[in-house]
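Supplementary notes for students who missed Thursday's class. We covered one full example, reproduced here. Read the sequence, then the structure, then the short commentary at the end.
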Amino acid sequence: MQSNFKNMVFSLSLIAVFAAVTLASVYALTKEPISASKQAKQQNAIREVLPLFEYLDEAERVGVSSGDTLLVYRAYGKDEKFVGAAVETVSHTGYSGDIRLMVGFDTEGVIVNYSVLEQRETPGLGTKMVDWFKTETKNQNILGKNPSKDKFAVKKDGGDIDAITAATISSRAFLEAVQNAYFAYSNNKDAVSGATTVVTSGTAENQTSDKR
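Structure (token representation):
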């Protein structure tokens, strides 16, 4: 082809079309495996954070003050008795972006376990959240605690929880995600009777019928 502007535009257009078709084909081929992988990770996380259960009810969507809608998975035992709920939660205030967790609660709203689904925090600092908040060292561990009774904030902010060393922002975001999860848990139909959680400015407070 003769080297002129028209032919150059034509050649570039062909390259662009070829690249677009190639990318579309790759997306089509990988979309289903990626989706299946995410679903498997989600299901594994639910099993990891809940007490032993027989089946899950259909996920319930619960809105929180951040504007997000969280998924609550209610779990039941052999006798169809409610044993707890797993909540897929998020905070948008991480040091490097969103932090997504799966948090499990028992029938009393006590945290059974958590699993980190997504985070892009600083390696060696914020990434420690995967294990930090379930480690029996000083006041790091949140397992066995109830966000309506314990102050789910880092000590620097007057809370009860030790922040990850040199990663206070990541720690605040993690605890915010847990607070959001408790709000969603306490507002599902099987939540502990008489308690509602109010989330304001990243803090969770318990409100009962006789006192606040």
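Commentary. The helical segments are 5-49, 129-132, 168-186. Residues 32 and 73 are 23 Å apart (CA to CA). If anything here is unclear, bring it to office hours.
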